[in-house]
TrEMBL record:
It holds the Pfam family YbjN. InterPro entries: Put_sensory_transdc_reg_YbjN. It comes from the Bacteria. This is YbjN domain-containing protein.
Length: 163
C-alpha cells in the first residue's frame, strides 16, 4: 500500500499536477481541461486495489436513452475505467486497479484515459443531454446583449435560434 501511495505522489509531482491528500491513501487531483475547465479525480488506495472516480456531467435533462446508449458504446473502448451513473443519474468515470498494477506509467495512462473521456466527451454529452437548455441560455444572453463566447462550441445548436 505504501508503495502505491509513493508511486501516485511521485507521478503527480513529476506531471506538475495540482493535488491534495485529504486522508491517508486518498488523493484528489485536478486535471486541466480544454472543454471543461478541469476534471477532478479521486484515487483511493485500498488494501488490495486502487479505485479511481471522476465526475463527468450531471444527470442529462433530456434524451436519456441516447445519452445512455452513447456511454455504453464508449465503454467498450475505454481502458481501465468505465462510464457509470450514481443514484441521481449523474455521470462518472470509475475504475479499479490491483495495487500490483500501480506504476507511474499506469497512473499516467489511467489519468489520460479519464481526461480524454471526461473532457473530450463533455461537449458531446452537453449537446445530447442539454440541447434545450443551451438554446434557452443562448436566446436569453442574446436578448440581453450578453456574451455568448462560451457557447460557441454549440453553434450547431444555437444557429437555429438565430434564424
Amino acid at each position: 500500500m505504501s508503495d502505491a501511495k509513493s508511486v501516485i505522489e511521485q507521478t503527480f509531482h513529476e506531471a506538475g499536477l495540482e493535488w491534495e491528500s485529504p486522508a491517508d491513501g486518498t488523493y484528489v487531483v485536478k486535471l486541466p481541461g480544454t472543454r471543461k475547465l478541469s476534471t477532478t479525480v479521486s484515487l483511493i488506495v485500498g488494501k488490495h486495489s486502487l479505485s479511481v472516480n471522476a465526475f463527468v456531467v450531471r444527470r442529462p435533462d433530456e434524451n436519456h436513452e441516447a445519452v445512455h446508449r452513447w456511454l455504453l458504446e464508449r465503454n467498450t473502448r475505454l481502458y481501465g475505467v468505465a462510464y457509470a451513473m450514481d443514484r441521481l443519474g449523474d455521470i462518472y468515470l470509475v475504475g479499479r486497479l490491483p495495487l500490483a498494477a500501480v506504476t507511474p506509467d499506469e497512473i499516467d495512462r489511467i489519468l489520460g484515459t479519464v481526461l480524454e473521456n471526461a473532457d473530450g466527451s463533455f461537449n458531446t454529452l452537453l449537446e445530447m443531454g442539454f440541447a434545450s437548455a443551451i438554446r434557452k441560455e443562448y436566446a436569453w444572453r442574446t436578448s440581453r446583449g450578453e456574451s455568448t463566447r462560451n457557447l460557441e462550441a454549440f453553434a450547431r445548436l444555437t444557429s437555429k435560434a438565430d434564424d
